[in-house]
């Protein structure tokens, strides 16, 4: 693909951009059978007579932009009032907008704007990470005019990290791939997207949020022992216990379940608009895909054993230098990890620092941010004590769920129309699918017959 390509000048991109939203929603389907694929036996036995056609750079850029694009600044339109010292007043307090981690707006929603999920993908050429944690938007709405679309190609190129050459290394057996996905998952010509969520950043942030609301964690696997010093309860800063396992489980669902699902659904809607096949699924073994077994290199995540539980399976904690969780060994200790989260919000280049370089959505940025209350020192200390308790007691953080999680996969491919024409009673695909090869790949020979 030429370096000077402009999405704003491509008719097929314009048509996809203006595809009706509700048509995409109601006609969204999993269309799993792509060019070059085969179901070898059974009532829908079929062998494609075409060779696979990989997605080109424009197609992948649009899907990545839809799935995990930086779209502007979030509005953070909540009350900015300081936390009362009296717990009775906290019960009716309308404040704490400083729970937001970033003012970055993405194409998907995230608890407290932390956006702890990064998108990995693989195609015939390699395995990639879209490294977007530190990317800041240009303005309130980054993709506002037709010419703004041209930045999507550069956005992907600038923030893509190539991890490995060639397609993702995972074995084709049922230890890694569900039997019904064996014929099509990660096949030549496909692009497989894998959103991986770091739950540690929002977990630390949420512990501070809870403390500000008068809540504290108790260890329900250790006689409901408070994860903090008793003095915080005696002094009236917190008074409502929350079980640790419930907190971690709910938070894990809020991060991985919500963020990954939003990313996947965005990509799925874009597939309809562009006329691509594909589907969202969970039919792979995440630890194999991430690289936590001898079966395959996978994505190359670092897996750490737990010295306090030698029988526990090693857990994924990050990719060194590329995507790291907020815990040791990436930080000296849990106190340092908490300090890093606080610094993201209030440090020299913090979200709420009026003198930082980070953009904000407000007209009078510096004056507005100067009036945003800081997280109280009591709350920060409660968070540190809680995180230290979890680490010292369980030898890991979080105590129950993996720090890095991958459960959802989204695959995109060029659809094999002949399969759907043969077996389905009625329109099994959209006009966009029927016209895709003509409009997006006009060069003759784009679809080659199998020799």
Note the beta-strand portion.
Answer: 15-25%
CA(first)-CA(last) distance: 26 Å
Task: Give the CA-based shape.
Answer: globular
Query: How many beta strands in the DSSP annotation?
Result: 17
- Biggest beta-sheet profile: 7 strands, antiparallel
Q: Low-confidence parts lasting 5 or more residues at pLDDT below 50?
A: none
Number of helices: 14
**Could you report the average pLDDT, rounded to the nearest whole number?**
95
Helix content: 25-40%
Keywords:
17 strands, alpha+beta, 451 residues, seven-stranded antiparallel sheet
What does this structure look like?
The structure is a single chain. The protein has 451 residues and is α+β, with helices and mostly antiparallel strands. The protein has one domain. It is 32% helix and 15% strand. The protein has 14 helices and 17 strands. The strands form five sheets. Strands 5, 6, 7, 8, 12, 16 and 17 form a seven-stranded antiparallel beta sheet that branches. A three-stranded mixed beta sheet has the order 10-9-11. A three-stranded antiparallel beta sheet has the order 13-14-15, with no helix packed on it. The longest helix has 31 residues. The model has no long low-confidence stretch (mean pLDDT 95).
């Amino acid at each position: 693909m030429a370096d000077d390509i402009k999405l704003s000048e491509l008719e097929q991109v314009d048509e996809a951009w203006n595809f009706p939203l509700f048509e995409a929603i109601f006609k969204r389907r999993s269309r799993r059978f792509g060019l070059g694929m085969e179901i070898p036996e059974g009532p829908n036995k079929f062998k494609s007579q075409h060779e696979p056609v990989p997605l080109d750079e424009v197609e992948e850029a649009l899907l990545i932009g839809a799935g995990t694009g930086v779209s502007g600044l979030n509005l953070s339109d909540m009350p900015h009032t300081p936390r009362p010292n009296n717990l009775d007043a906290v019960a009716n307090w309308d404040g704490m907008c400083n729970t937001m981690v970033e003012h970055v707006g993405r194409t998907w929603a995230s608890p407290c704007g932390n956006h702890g999920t990064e998108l990995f993908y693989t195609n015939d050429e390699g395995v990639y990470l879209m490294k977007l944690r530190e990317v800041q938007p240009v303005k309130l709405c980054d993709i506002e005019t037709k010419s703004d679309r041209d930045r999507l190609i550069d956005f992907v190129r600038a923030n893509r990290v190539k991890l490995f050459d060639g397609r993702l290394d995972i074995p084709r057996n049922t230890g890694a791939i569900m039997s019904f996905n064996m014929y099509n998952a990660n096949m030549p010509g496909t692009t497989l997207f894998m959103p991986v969520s770091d739950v540690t950043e929002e977990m630390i942030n949420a512990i501070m949020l809870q403390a500000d609301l008068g809540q504290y964690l108790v260890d329900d696997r250790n006689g409901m022992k408070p994860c903090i010093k008793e003095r915080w309860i005696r002094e009236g800063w917190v008074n409502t216990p929350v079980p640790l396992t419930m907190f971690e489980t709910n938070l894990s669902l809020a991060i991985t379940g919500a963020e990954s699902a939003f990313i996947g659904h965005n990509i799925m809607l874009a597939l309809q608009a562009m006329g691509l096949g594909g589907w969202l699924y969970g039919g792979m073994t995440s630890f194999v895909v991430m690289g936590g077994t001898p079966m395959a290199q996978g994505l190359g995540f670092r897996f750490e054993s737990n010295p306090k539980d030698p029988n526990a399976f090693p857990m994924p904690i990050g990719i060194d230098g590329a995507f790291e969780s907020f815990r040791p060994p990436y930080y000296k200790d849990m106190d340092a990890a908490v300090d890093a989260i606080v610094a993201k919000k209030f440090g020299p280049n913090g979200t709420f620092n009026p003198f930082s370089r980070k953009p904000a959505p407000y007209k009078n940025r510096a004056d507005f941010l100067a009036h945003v209350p800081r997280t109280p020192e009591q709350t920060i200390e409660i968070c540190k004590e809680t995180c230290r308790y979890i680490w010292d007691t369980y030898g890991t953080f979080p105590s129950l769920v993996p720090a890095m999680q991958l459960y959802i996969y989204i695959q995109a491919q060029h659809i094999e129309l002949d399969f759907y024409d043969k077996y389905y009673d009625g329109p099994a695909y959209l006009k966009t699918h029927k016209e895709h090869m003509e409009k997006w790949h006009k060069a003759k020979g784009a679809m080659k017959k199998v020799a």
